[in-house]
Amino acid sequence: MSKPIRKAIFPVAGLGTRFLPATKAMPKEMLTVVDRPIIQHVADEARTGGIEHFIFVTGRNKGVIEDHFDRQFELEEVLRRRNKQEELLNLETHLPKPGATSFTRQQEPLGLGHAVWCAHDIVGRDPFALLLPDVIVLPDGESCLGQMIRVYDGLVEKYPEAKINIIAVEEVAPEETSSYGVVGLAGVEGDRLWRIDSMVEKPAKGTSPSNLIIMGRYILQPEIFDILRYQERGAGNEIQLTDAMRTLMQDQLFFAYKFRGKSYDCGSKLGFLTANVAFALARSDLGPKFGEELKKLAAEVQAKKAAE
Hints:
- This protein is an alpha/beta fold and 308 residues long.
- 35% of the residues lie in helices and 25% in strands.
- It has helices spanning 38-48, 63-68, 73-81, 85-93, 112-117, 120-123, 144-158, 223-228, 241-248, 269-281, 287-307, and strands at residues 7-11, 32-33, 36-37, 53-58, 101-105, 128-131, 135-139, 164-171, 181-190, 193-201, 212-220, 253-258, 261-265.
- A nine-stranded mixed beta sheet has the order 5-4-1-6-11-8-12-10-9.
- A hairpin with a 2-residue loop joins strand 9 (181-190) and strand 10 (193-201).
- The protein is globular.
């Protein structure tokens, strides 16, 4: 019988070169979307989805991420003295429980597959979630990972003798598939759920097997580590997770789940800016006033263009 999903890997060793000079001394994962770092949004998604153990694969100059998920006694004491109860509660809400976080190093930038493998000793032989921190999700109700774990539990019950892997997917226009990893569908399994039999990285236009793209959330079985241990370097001279998943697909079941919500790629400047707008508008304390400010800005831009 498959074990429940209680552990999650967060690969946070990237250099963030697309955001220089902002990321020269600060990890890109600590850039804020509204009032929370990107990595906090992703960790919150995992926690609300049921994750109990958070495993961060870090690199050099990433110590501030570890500090972020620790207590800062001086700050807490100042807030207590000033009777800032709301701020104290906010800090406490986002703080992992003692012993719930682990940190390991990816000492060389050898790709996502290698980063995942770096966590193998901590994960052990349990199935796990993988959340890419460049992607944050504004859910439609239940968190993205929470939806995936619920679907996973249903598939485990349906296929008690099988090993189940799930990839979150999102639908894009057919002409956009050449910019993404795309899944090939083997058949409909349920509502927003498909059995998949292939994955293609950035297919040439007109050759994509579907218009469902891989968006950065996975539930994987521990046998992926056995493959990654000996995985040869692929595209970009890096150890690619997709190559290992293709190999694992020969022996285990893979499913694509079209989650309810909208993802934002905070690894790009446009995606990061869009995420800030979307998350701010979704907040009851900011959305109405911020929406009015956006309308004013849009009117000013249109008036300026009309005057040119």
